[in-house]
């Protein structure tokens, strides 16, 4: 333990453990806080409580099996994680996938983004003491999980993408249910604003709190809505488009304040953009195959392959080093949560302990994604 | 800058760096361990390259050496580059830390230390990150055996 420093007015700093079981860490994350009264002097994350060594497991598995593991990293962005690995494999094999699969994948990705953000919104309200938002958020989240269940058979770990396309075609009711959801959600999303976004208590607790500058965001590699709230323009869908994102009309949400409120607003705005994307696609899903033919046993050529995908939390990187065998020589997942967490100390220093909860909420940490 | 312009610029600064031509979609640069800090700081500080965003830092355990892999990107110029450093000494792999240049490297280097046992010189806080402090061995090394937790087929 470090030596105790006694300040001139006779107070002394002390340590407090937040987690691994703490309602606002949403998983088993432990933070050791150094405090002076209720002012935070240092936040030190202790990781590994849910480390499963997915990267080591990948070295033993073949490429089809690996996709199953990625659901279990950031479980709220399961579709995007699958998408990233599938794309990496397809690019390595130089397989062209059918348009129908591309459309389905992007619709699924954006539905996942909305479902992840609705859950985040509900939980963020609850972290700040508003139970209502939790119920509202879960209501809309459930709607989407039911759409997923109908087509993929699972609600959380969908595992729907396979190398070459998607595992099976969409359910006959899919288009109708997605349209119903969008129509419904468009009336629900303004409720989010009336409940939280304009609430005076909420504004007091978020505006000007936990500021992250653009330089720090870049240096710490903070991506996704959290990075864009600081003005770091890094939407993979715009910068290095994959799937059919380059043909779509949507905005990259950018704010410049970098405080908790900007991060909050960035996600709310992103949901509107996701709605826009789905509306452009849902009536135009092309007919045809949903899967390109690939070999049963996939062997990637020698070399290394990197694929970026924008998940609900930021930039997910999949780095495959192949030596030509049926399993990767080395597999690395650059998870967005890991880098976003590293900036927590910078944001929370000098603030109050109660603000830490708000800051963590807007980073939207998913612990299995950080530990892998 | 395009890859060609990048190649020319970097060669004019450091004539003895080696470009790896094949096997990656990015421009790949192999530098020696003692040149790493010179090259990476120049790449970051110079306004014409301005590689200010490190999007990935990792290590690969090859039979003859450990290879550190740094994925760099410029946030305003949008070009990308991969920097590689081979650590020949497999018994005692050591390399200078880059966390003074990139804050994200601090946790990433701790992860590499934890799982590969690569020591980062002058790192402010080099401890195990994911595993417990008393863990023996480095699991992502190829010669790591754990008969209890790893099921081999």
What does this structure look like?
The complex is a heterodimer of chains A (372) and B (153). Chain A has 372 residues and is of the alpha+beta class. Chain A has one domain (63-371): Orthogonal Bundle (Cytochrome-c3 Hydrogenase, chain B), CATH 1.10.645. Chain A contains 15 helices and 8 strands. Chain A has helices spanning 54-60, 63-70, 78-93, 99-127, 131-152, 174-197, 200-206, 214-220, 224-228, 236-239, 260-282, 336-342, 344-348, 353-363, 367-371, and strands at 14-18, 30-36, 39-46, 161-162, 165-166, 303-310, 315-322, 330-334. In chain A, strands 1-2-3 form a 3-stranded antiparallel beta sheet. A 3-stranded antiparallel beta sheet of chain A has the order 6-7-8. The radius of gyration of chain A is 21 Å and the shape is globular. With 153 residues, chain B is of the alpha/beta class. Chain B has a domain at 3-92: Beta Polymerase, domain 2 (2-Layer Sandwich), CATH 3.30.460. Chain B contains 3 helices and 7 strands; from the N terminus they run H-E-E-H-E-E-E-E-H-E. Chain B has helices at residues 3-13, 36-45, 105-116, and strands at residues 18-20, 28-31, 53-61, 66-73, 80-87, 94-96, 119-121. In chain B, helix 3 (105-116) links the parallel strand 6 and strand 7. The radius of gyration of chain B is 17 Å and the shape is globular. Chain B starts with a helix and ends in a 32-residue tail after the last strand. The interface between A and B is large, with 38 and 34 residues.
């Amino acid at each position: 333990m470090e030596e105790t420093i006694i300040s001139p007015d006779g107070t002394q700093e002390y340590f407090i453990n937040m987690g691994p079981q703490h309602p606002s860490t949403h998983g088993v994350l432990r933070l050791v806080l150094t405090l002076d009264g209720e002012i935070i002097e240092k936040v030190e994350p202790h990781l590994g409580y849910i480390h499963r060594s997915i990267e080591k497991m990948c070295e033993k598995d073949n490429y089809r099996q690996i996709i199953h593991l990625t659901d279990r990293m950031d479980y709220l962005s399961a579709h995007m994680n699958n998408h990233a690995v599938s794309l990496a494999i397809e690019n390595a094999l130089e397989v062209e996938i059918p348009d129908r699969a591309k459309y389905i994948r992007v619709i699924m990705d954006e539905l996942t983004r909305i479902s992840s953000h609705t859950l985040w919104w509900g939980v963020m309200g609850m972290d700040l003491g508003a139970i209502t938002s939790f119920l509202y958020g879960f209501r809309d989240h459930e709607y989407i999980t039911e759409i997923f269940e109908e087509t993929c058979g699972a609600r959380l770990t969908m595992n729907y993408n396979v190398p070459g396309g998607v595992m099976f075609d969409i359910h006959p009711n899919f288009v109708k249910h997605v349209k119903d959801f969008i129509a419904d959600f468009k009336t629900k999303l303004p409720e989010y604003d009336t409940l939280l976004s304009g609430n005076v208590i909420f504004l007091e607790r978020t505006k000007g709190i936990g500021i992250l500058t653009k330089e720090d965001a870049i240096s710490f590699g903070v991506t996704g809505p959290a990075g864009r709230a600081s003005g770091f323009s890094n939407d993979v869908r715009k910068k290095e488009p994959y799937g059919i994102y380059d043909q779509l009309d949507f905005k990259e949400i950018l704010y410049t304040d970098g405080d908790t409120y900007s991060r909050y607003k960035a996600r709310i705005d992103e949901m509107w953009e996701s709605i826009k994307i789905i509306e452009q696609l849902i009536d135009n899903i092309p007919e045809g195959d949903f899967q390109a033919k690939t070999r049963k046993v996939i062997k990637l050529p020698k070399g290394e392959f990197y694929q970026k995908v924008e998940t609900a939390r930021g930039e997910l990187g999949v780095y495959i080093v192949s030596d030509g065998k049926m399993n990767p020589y080395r597999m690395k997942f650059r998870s967005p949560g890991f880098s976003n967490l590293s900036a927590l100390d910078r944001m929370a220093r000098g603030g109050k302990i109660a603000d830490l909860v708000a800051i963590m909420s807007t980073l939207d940490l998913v612990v299995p994604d950080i530990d892998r | 800058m395009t890859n060609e312009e990048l190649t020319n610029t970097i060669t004019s600064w450091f004539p003895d760096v080696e470009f790896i031509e094949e096997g990656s979609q990015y421009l790949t640069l192999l530098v020696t361990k003692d040149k790493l800090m010179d090259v990476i700081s120049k790449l970051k500080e110079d306004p014409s390259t301005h590689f200010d965003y490190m999007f990935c830092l990792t290590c690969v355990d090859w039979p003859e050496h450990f290879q550190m892999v740094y994925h760099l990107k410029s946030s305003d110029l949008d070009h990308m580059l991969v920097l590689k450093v081979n650590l020949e000494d497999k018994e005692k792999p050591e390399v200078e830390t880059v966390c003074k240049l990139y804050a994200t490297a601090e946790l990433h280097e701790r992860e590499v230390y934890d799982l590969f046992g690569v020591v980062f010189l002058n790192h402010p806080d080099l401890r195990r990150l994911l595993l417990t402090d008393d863990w023996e061995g480095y699991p992502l090394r190829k010669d790591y055996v754990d008969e209890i937790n790893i099921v081999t087929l």
